[in-house]
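Final report, Chapter 2: Outcomes

The project's central promise was a pipeline that accepts a single protein chain and returns its three-dimensional structure in a standardized token representation, suitable for archiving and comparison. That pipeline is now operational. To close this chapter, we reproduce one record exactly as it appears in the project archive, with the input sequence first and the structure output second.
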Amino acid sequence: MSGVVAAMRRTLLSCTSLARHGMIALATLSAWPEPALATDSIIAQTLSTLFDLNQQEFAALMTALSLLGFTVVAAILLMRTRIRASRTELSLRSDIADLQVQADRLRALLFAEPQILIAWAAGDNRPQISGDTSLLISQDALSSSPQRILAFGTWLPPEPALQMDHAVDALREAGEGFLLNLSTSNGRAIEAMGRAIGGQAIVRIRELGGLRRELAESNLRYRTLLEETELLRDFAAAAPWPIWAKSVEGNLRYANTAYVRATEGKSIADAIHRNLELLEHDQRGEMARVLNDNSTFSARLPIVVGGERRIYDVQALRLSGGSAGIAIDAGEATQLRDAMERMAEAHRRTLDQLSSGVAVFDGQRRLAFYNESYRRLWGLDQAFLDSNPDDSSVLDRLRAARKLPEQPDFRAWKAKLHEAYRAVEPENYTWFLPDGRAVSVVTTPNLEGGVTYLFDNVTESLDLARRYDRLTRVQHETLDNLAEAVAVFGSNGRVELFNPAFARMWKLSAESLKEQPHIETVEAWCKPLFDDALTWRALREAITGIENRAQVALKLERKDGSVLDCMTMPLPDGATLLTFQDITDTENVERALRERNEALEAADQMKVDFVHHVSYELRAPLTTIIGFAHFLSDPSTGPLTPKQAEYLDYVTKSTNALLALTNNILDLATIDAGAMKLELGPVNIEKAIQAAAEGIQDRLATDRIELKIDIDPNIGNFTGDERRVVQVLYNLLANAVGFSPHDAAVTISARRTEHRVIFTVSDCGPGIPAEVKDKVFDWFESHSHGSRHRGAGLGLSLVRSFVELHGGKVRVDSVVGKGTTVTCDFPVDQNAHRNAAE
């Protein structure tokens, strides 16, 4: 019984589950979920009521019923799906047939004429091609360029092919459509249109023919005409020159902004409405007359613009519907032309003043300009030159006059010269003429065509160059054979020139000196022989200094014992001449002479000191002897025998002479020591001469000499030391009396000028030979010359010393056999003389 119950439970549960799933499926199909929920609830309640089932049994029963219901529903749905699929397949087959019919109809319609459709899917570089490709594109081109299917370069000219490439790229990348009318390489007209449709880039290419081609060409010409017209309008509006157009009646139809400004209109419409005129009445009339006779008018006219009169180039053209014109400002061009003419005239005047001959030949090789130097250089006739002869005619005339260099082939020589007309760079020649002249010729091509000839007489220049070269060689030979060492350093301090003596003197290598070493390098080479830093520094500064360049003289005593006399001499070009002279022998001789001179000076000083000392020592006993002689001659001491009186007279005369000699020696020693002081005061000239004459009265009487005095009684005084002046005159008179023969005359004279007093003493003695004349004023120089004069030779020495102390001069004039004249010149004012000397 329990088994039956269990089987019934399982059956009920399966049925219940099947019923539940069937109801859920129906509810799902009907989009109504509530009945399924209600069904679950009803079934659950029913089963729970009919059978006393526990929870697990109830669940198993529900699962079985669910499986049963799902199986039933699945079977039902599968049947429905198969029925519906059969119906859909029949419908799709019918639609595909209809679409194929429509596609065939559209393809037939689309390719009714020769054309190609090319489509690129998004992201795909390989195109889909439809149409008759053989019409426009060869199969070889398609196979060789599958990526760029059009292969435009194979059937389009370069420029249309590039235009087509750019249009296709813009279509594929940005979806920009295009429409192009192009011509193939074989002259066929095509139309290319590109559009972006359904995510694809589609290009249609078709051939244009017949009316369509004519319309396309007309459309292209129309667009081109519109573009050109618009471009011309924009240009005319932006042009800075006045542009206008007029009707046949002469009314203004068009004007640009520049025309409005020039005519002072408010706007273009205002200028056209008011028919503003740019030209004056006479100018317009002349233009109309010319346009009626001809199709163009061109003139340079003055036009008043903005209150200023300016020059314009006016161009006008006659048209079918009137005329058009333009006025271009020619003021600046006129000014430039005038400036160019003035400049050309100035250049002509300048060229006329040149010493170089200038001849300018134009592009036709005819003489366009020449200066006076050119005419004089070649001696050509002015009328011939003014006739603008050609280049060949001028050369032929010069050749006929034998004024050109002699040439074996004159035609070839002239052709080579005329190559200047085709040359780019100037050429230089030197012509040696038959008359001995040398002429430098420069041919310069002109920018505007033609050639400019420059002629310079370089005869003197070449002669000077030859002389300079000869002089340079002589100077080099001279320097090379000088005993002195010579080197020239440039402004950069490097050796530029040297002679072999320089290299030998400093024991340097000639090859090293030829490399132009710096003075510092030369100094380093010479330091083994002479390393005095101060001397080398002075030489470096003299050679490399820029300012205060002065001559420097130095003496170098080298380590080898030689002595060099160094001299630097700055040269005008910034270089410095450095000379070295070996004065070792001269220095040795000079040193010996210096030592000898010092010995002589010491001996002379010893002589002076000795004379001075002896003179002082002699004066004391002489004074005593003279005093006792005077004492003995005094009658108060007692009578003397005649013989004693005679002897005493001899003693007195001898001691007086010895005292005078001693005084003279002392005076000379004092003057030589610079200790002589003059006692200045007024000197009566007449009294001074009388005092000197009194001192020689005894000798005058003894020798029967006549003294002649020639002075002006009013000669007056002068400033000096009176005692020394008398001593000078006494010595002169004593010297003159001593050299004069018996029964002769001695003359003393004095004359006065504004600043001087001149004493002159003359005798008739034997005169002074020329070899002795220069020694008469030396100490102890006494020459009798066959006269009675005997002396120590100090008189004239004292005369010169005392006169020079006064600031005067002594001159001796003597003629052998006729006598001697001594002239002493004293300044009148000693104070003025001393101030002038100071």
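Archive annotation: The longest strand covers residues 308-319.
This record, like all others produced under the grant, will remain available to the consortium after the project formally closes.
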